Amino acid sequence: MAGKKSVKSTLKESLALQVKAQQFYGYADRFNRVPLFISLLLSNAGAESAENIDVVIENGNGFLVPFSRHFEEIPYESSVEIEAADIASPLYLTELSDIREETVLIRVLHGKDVVAETSVRVVVLPFDFWSGRSGNAELLTSFVRPKVADCLRVLDDARAQLKKWNTDTEWRGYQEGDKNKIRLLAAAIYAAVKRQAVEKSAAEYSYDAPVPVGDITKILKNKVGTSFELVLFLASCFECAGLHPVVAMGEKSVSCGVWLYDNCFADSVSDDTVLLGNYIADGINNVSMFDAEDVFAGRNVNYTAAEKHFAQKLSGGWFDTVIDVRRCRLARIRPLPLKVKGIKGYELLGEEDTDIDAAPEIISGARKLSLDGKVTKNKQWERRLLDLSLKNALLNFRPDKYALHILSSDVNSTFESLSSGEEFSVLEKTADVRGVLPINEYFGVSANLSVLNELLDVELKNRRLRTYSEAKDIDDILRYLIKKGKTAEEEAGANVLYLAFGFLKWYEPNSSEAKYAPLVLCPVKITRSKGGKGFSVSFTEDEKQINNTLLEFLLREFKIDIRGLDNITSGIRISEILAMVKMEILNMKRWEVLDEVYLASFSFARFAMWNDVRKNIDKFRKNPLIRSLLDNRLEIPNHVFENKSEDDYSPAEILCPLTADSSQFAAIAEAVGGASFVLHGPPGTGKSQTITNIIANCLNNGKRVLFVAEKQAALSVVKKRLDSIGLGDFCLELHSAKLDKAQLLKKMETTLSLTSEQEGSEFASKSEQIEEVRAALNEPVRALHKKRRLGVSVYEGILIYEKNKNAPDVLDIESTFYDSLTKEKLESYENMLIEVSAAAKQCGGAYRSPFDNVNLREYDNNVRNRVYYAAEVLLAEIKHLKSYLALFLDFYRQRISSFTQKKLRTLVQLVEMLRSGELDKYFSCDENEFYVFFNANRRLDRLLGNYFKNFKSLVDLDADPVVVEQELENWGDNYRSSKTLSAVAKRLRRSAVGELTPSDEVKYIGIVAQIYEDLQLVRRNTPLSSNFFDRGGRINFRKREEFMEPLRQMHALAEGVFMDYNADSFNSVCVQAEGGGYADPILDGLKQAVAGFENSRESFCEVIAADPEKYSDEDLLDYFNTKAGALIDNIDMLSAWCLYKEISGKLDEEGLTFVTDSLESGAVTSDNILDSFRKNVYRNFIETNISADPVLSTFSASVLEEKIELFRTLDEQFTKISREHIRNKLIANLPTTSTEGSLSLEVLAFQRILKGNMRGMTPKEFFAQIPELFARLAPCVLMSPITVAQYLSPEPDLFDLVVFDEASQLPTSEAIGALARARSAVIVGDPKQLPPTSFFTSGYVDEENLDAEDLESILDDCLALSIPEKHLNWHYRSKHESLIAFSNIMYYGNKLCTFPSPDALESKVRLALVEDGVYDRGFTKRNKGEAEALIAEVVRRLKDPVLSRSSIGIVTFSTAQQDYIERRLSDALVRNKLEDAAYEREEPLFIKNLENVQGDERDVILFSVCYGPDRTGKVSLNFGPLNQVGGWRRLNVAVSRAREEMIVFSSMTSAMINLAKTNSKGVAGLKAFLEFAEKGKTTLAISSAELKAPRSGIGKYIAKELKTYGYECRYDLGVSDFKIDCAVIDPKNKKRFILAIMCDGVTASNSSAKDRNILQIQTLKLNNWNVARVFTINFINNPKREIKKIKDMLDRLTGADKAGRDHLTKYKKAYRYAKLEQQQNVSQYVTGGENDAEIVSRLKAIAAAEEPLSERFLMKRCLSSLGIQKFGTKVEERMGNLINLCGLKREQLCGRDYLRKTDKCLDCDFYRVEPGDSIRKSEEDFTPYEIIALIKGLLENKVSLYADELVAAVCAELKIVRPSDKLTEFINECVALGVSRSLFIRSIGDRISLC
Fold first, then answer.
1. CA within 20 to 30 Å of 374's CA: 157, 586, 1543, 1833, which one?
2. Using one digit for the tens of pLDDT, what is the confidence trace for 1081-1117?
3. Using the 8-state DSSP alphabet, how is residue 1655 labeled?
């Protein structure tokens, strides 16, 4: 069709490649798995999907290994990221000896057509080349090789140097000591290399370009090297020594250094030289850097001077890049193998091949207390719970007024005396002590007590403990300690009172302040002494313990590992323990172990949890999940999901008090079934809603639930939801460690006093009704998508048919073929068709093929040769025959047209006759005589033939024929008047077969005359006549026939051969040839030529197995000439044709002759044969299956829509009933006065405790006393991890289920206590959001116990165990799909089910580029320009009356920027008087950073990136928290907070971030996010691994149909699994969609009945969509009707339907006034009381006629009829009482009372209009029933209206010109009432539509 583009041209316009490749690429890149392509995106900008696409990547020089990738479909308006890993050839990269520039060609193919292509040039580097700073700078560390032998040689020399400095080393890295020791090691290595006297090479390099790294293994050997080579060698030596090297570089400068403690930078490569300058500065000294130039020979400079030289160069700007080797190693950048020359070429040697010092180090005695073996998981949990801050007295003990210093001259004696278990009195210090220690010193005084040994021994024997305190202080301290211990026992259930034996005196680095930490802790109890005077202390039954907090702290901060002490304390004396510790700290300057003893309280924030795990781990191990975590293997029984769908459950089986989608329902069902699993809850997927439903169902099933969350906000959200569904009374919230006992008791007392209403049978009946309707709704969908005989569903069959319906409909297929068709046969046939089509294409097509009638099936070279030479011979014979034929024709002066097979046979007969001599008798006479003879005979034959048809014999003619003719001419019709003619006529009548008419007689008289005249000519002119005339001159007709027969045959043959045959000419040549005899050679030659042709033709046809019936009936010679020539010309395609014939033969054998017939006849082509076949097959399939299916054949869309509406109503009702059902069930389970057994005793105990206000009892004891009652009153408990440990007994089966929220932020160690107390667990969280914050306060990881280390959270640990997983998929937060698109594609694999928006064509994420923004790097670390732009936007929005409705959140990427914006915004809000607008609202404005924004959401989120170009225009790649390992998680959290809009304020664009200089996933995410904000969703490439198979549905074909009406559409709209089948673009606004068309396609088949029919539609309408349904069966049966329905709806929406149906008419009624007699009275008429009957009568009359009406309007109408226009409160009160006497039904709606006599108004199906001037004008005059009915009619007319448009339309219909504010408010209240009753849906944009 004219104007229609081909598929190829359309794809060329739509598809585009976006390629970013590495600028440089070498073996180091491939070795470290750096991809060749930074990004390789294939974008489809078209409006339709691109199908059957191949991507090929090529290079002709061997640089790449072959790569191709096939895509079934590239979705429209999207991009696909093509993953091409390990594409570079390692062999090529290894053998390359010089720099080369290679071209990489990327082509996109559709079939064989190239539809897009591009190329990139890559500089390929030799093996020993680094790409320079402009390339992948961090790969420099690949050339740092610590295992080369020369490094060990240098270390040996350095050890000798250290001995000169009186220092020794074992090269243990940072375990060697403090910063000074590490610096000394670095200086020794410096000196060792310097002594090698290495000369500096003359070669100079720019480090911005590729640089040869040289061979560091030859530096010491050759004594020469470049600065670059020397630095790499030094870095290798440092790393070999266990130190962390740092390399600093400038354009032409390079230097080296080391970290002075175990640390690294946040980035592998950084340009933050300011930070480096700070780190090398005196007083900080984190890093030591030196000038590498000073190492070369000739520079007499020591290490200290070299450090100064470096600092000078750094401040002078010589260096601008810092490369951290340790950070690179953590990023898995490994040292390259060495390339050495081997026997068979080059060989690569790895570290294991070059390490010549492989023997293990000798374990020194100093390591005896290090941990031997692996730490158990429970020990790891304990350590994770330890508080390592200096606020913890276990690390930083400060003796003050609340601790007692015990006098002890021998810690062993003191400990052993107390070990008896007896009580020891605590006494003040004696005068002896005062004499020895006049001043009270806290530490270091025990050595002075040796003079008091005997005294103290006596005191111990008398069970007395002397202290350093005075008597007046002891009582106060001990009372405080007793109170502290009691509180801890109550709240945490743990003892915190200890006698501490021995203290470690330690110092922080660079600090002069000593700190003290206890070493051995012995738990004690303090009691009053007998008699009530004084206090006693004694050991408890618990064992002494080592200060684990200190052990962990020493390892983390100082790498001192003495954790083994914890396992060997039993049986060892205190002094031995202290001695062991002393040995370990010998190298720590100023550190000491003091043998002091203190009585004090030791605890910390998480002490209760630590104690819970420590004491109860044996009980906890009984829990399968805890056991799994401990043993690192899954031991949960029955951990396979049942995976039943929502529709498989009875509605009464799993209840949904809150609406739940199918993914939520699946999680609820599994949780109720007792499964333990991880529930993934990405942002905005309804986690709290799901948790609430899980809790509600468990309570309904009589289960106990423990809900745990670390944040109060998370508990409050769930508690609020539980309150909303009526279950709050049965849920106890215990988040805080400080419990209000009175409030707890009151809460439980209130619950105990609850009573339930009698529950009817409505619950069961509604459940059954829903199940029945649901089944009816599922039947059509299941029938439509049920797999049928051909392996496809009816729906799939329809799609296949629709796809191919434009194919030719010419296949003649019999019905029996369809009947025998099966899935297997169909697949086989289609494969054969594909093969036959491909083969036909390869040989040029089957129609008019040069191989037509070549029926060969097998092919080999012999076949080819036979065909070829047979054709050649045939061509030669044809040429020979044509030559003779031309000579023959020329000789006989004849022409010939087409030379058919028949003519060939005739020609042969003619030649044989001419050559036989049989004709000589005719041509031996004179030429003229023969001419007369021949023509006379020809006429005679014609005349005689005509004559003898009617006569028996030839009559005699007496007269001359000429005379007879003359007579006949003269007499004409009066021939009988002539005797001659009359005589002839008489004879004719006698000889005639029948009766002759006069005209016949005239006619035949003339014929007889002509006969006799010709006989005379024959007889007179040639002697030939003698052969059939007798002597009497009479003719013998028999002889004549015999004589003339050969001549006639010759001319008949000649006439059959020649064109426009001239017999006279032919006779003339024959007569002449007879005389000369020269025709014989021509005739003989022609005869032989024909014979040769016939033989060659037969041979040719035999060779090609031709069917004689299929010869062309045209020119035989031309046919075979063309045939043979074509075969010779196309002989190379003979093999393909043989394959085609082989497959077509199989098709014929299978009964598919119609396929090959159609192909070879040209009815179909090889391109559309499969389409045509499918069209016919699936058309029959559809017709057969629809008619045979009882559901589909009787399908009715209107009936189904009625059932959908009924289902929606029932579901809404059942939700409310479910809430009541669960509550009543819980109330019924409460004990009553008639309850007996143990429960009744617990009730009595509770009453007793209640009266005593729980005095003297801990919560844990309280709950333990009433376990069963507690379970009844609070079956659900909401707690924090710490309150679990404090308040709950450690019983494994205390709860049936524990649910964790925000589990990604909860460390496993904190979750253990809650996990252990429940039979099953649901761990809810998102592993792609923030991990526990404590993990970012310390980077410590126990590398020796990696397998025992916690992962970041309980969520991660459970996932690592492969605990079953469920996923919440529906995303509700973002009201525009673009707001979640980035996170969905980047981090969730596009698995979130998101809903498109009507404005989906326009992104709601935009970049606000602040061009004048400057990041103040190194100083304030703010970006003032960005901040001011953001603040201006906030002010603008708050001032705008419309924009200010949306809540605002501000997210910054740094704390400094957050603080600055907070201050500046506060000033701006005050200045513009906008504080109330910002903060006095339901969701106040917030300003947060990446660390603390998780859990928050707002309508509009404003980002301040802050980072960007500094004053010099340079962009540093240090983006704060984003650079950290979990930086991408922070970004994911931040970008998923917005509901409506997101604006990114940034002073840099994505192009300014060079990913070649960083491997941070967070930075890569920021770059992608900025690009997304700037350019839109096509920049978000779906990973090719995640690209799903195409699944375009019926919407594609609906879109095509609508396009013919001028409506532009998009089909399968949406970036997630949920698709709108067809979305119609608003013709008035091309950036918005006006209608969503939902079908019963794949999305519907994968959805539950509730999802499909309620939730999806409601969610779309809430997102501002107008929605229409199209059912596939209706569409296939009558597409025009369905399309017209949609068009009519579109016309209503666009206003094109000017004369459409007015739906208001079915709702509109005339207002019927009550017929009342008008009176004129005053107020006393009412208040007097005498007229009550009259007034009541009037009221009833008005109500009967004008119902429904408001109480106020009824009052006004009645009083007006009585003539009372003004009235006061007395009249109102009286009228109110009289109205109550009328017996009217009353209902309160929208804050007013409405009255009615009947219930006919309750359906809201009519409204009334007054005929004349309206008396109803105010909000009191109208009823919600009528307003709702009016709104229904308006929405049926317009489909949807915005709220303000709706109010205006209502007022216009009610003839109210100027509505009051109150009336407007009333109409909005009516809308809200309709929404609450599920009549309307109000979208987020305030758009109202019908449900």
1. 586
2. 888 888 898 889 889 988 988 888 888 777 766 788 8
3. I
DSSP 1325-1353: E-TTS---GGGGT-----GGGGGGS--SS
The pairing of beta strand 1708-1710 with beta strand 1667-1670 = unpaired
Whose CA is closest to 134, among 1327, 1556, 1561? 1556
Q: What is the DSSP string of 642-695?
A: ----GGGS-TTTS--SS---HHHHHHHHHHHTT--EEEE--TTS-HHHHHHHHH
**Closest C-alpha among 1555, 1543, 1516, 1545 to residue 1421:** 1516
Burial class, 1241, CB count within 10 angstroms (exposed 0-12 / middle 13-18 / buried 19+): middle
Q: With contact defined as beta carbons under 8 Å apart, do 858 and 1176 qualify?
A: no
Backbone CA torsion sign across 1170, 1176, 1178, 1179: positive
3-state secondary structure of 157: helix
Regarding beta strands 1448-1452 and 1486-1489, do their DSSP bridges make them parallel or antiparallel, or are they unpaired?
Answer: parallel
DSSP secondary structure code for residue 1772 in this structure: H
Distance, in Å, from the CA atom of 1401 to the CA atom of 1420, rounded to the nearest integer, reads: 41
List phi, psi (to 5°) of 558: -125, 5
> What is the pTM for the complete model shown?
0.71
Full DSSP string of 411-456: HHHHHHHHTT---EEEE---HHHHHH-SS--SSS-GGGGGGGHHHH
User: What distance in Å separates the CA atoms of residue 425 and residue 536, rounded to the nearest whole number?
Assistant: 4
Pairwise CA distance, residues 1123 & 1140, whole Å: 18
Which amino acid, residue 977?
A: S
Closest by CA to 1620, choosing from 1836, 1404, 1400, 1839, is: 1400
DSSP state of 1652: I
Instruction: State the Cα–Cα distance between residues 1166 and 1173, nearest whole angstrom.
Output: 11
Model confidence pLDDT, tens digit, residues 566-620? 766 667 888 888 988 988 888 888 899 998 999 999 876 677 787 788 888 888 8
Instruction: Identify whether the C-beta of residue 670 lies closer than 8 Å to the C-beta of residue 641.
Output: yes
Q: Are 1555 and 34 in contact (CB under 8 A)?
A: no
Q: 828-842: buried (b, 16+ CB within 10 Å) or exposed (e) per residue? A: ebeebbebbbebbbe
The helix-helix angle for 607-620 and 471-492 (nearest 10°) equals 50
Q: How many residues does the chain have?
A: 1891
Query: Looking up tokens 């000896």, which residue turns up?
Result: 97
- DSSP 8-state code for residue 500: E
Query: Dihedral through CA 1741, CA 1745, CA 1747, CA 1749, nearest 10?
Result: -70
The residues with which 248 forms a beta bridge, in sequence order, are 255, 322
Written as six digits, the tokens of 462 are 């008398």
- The pLDDT, as a whole number, for residue 359 is 39
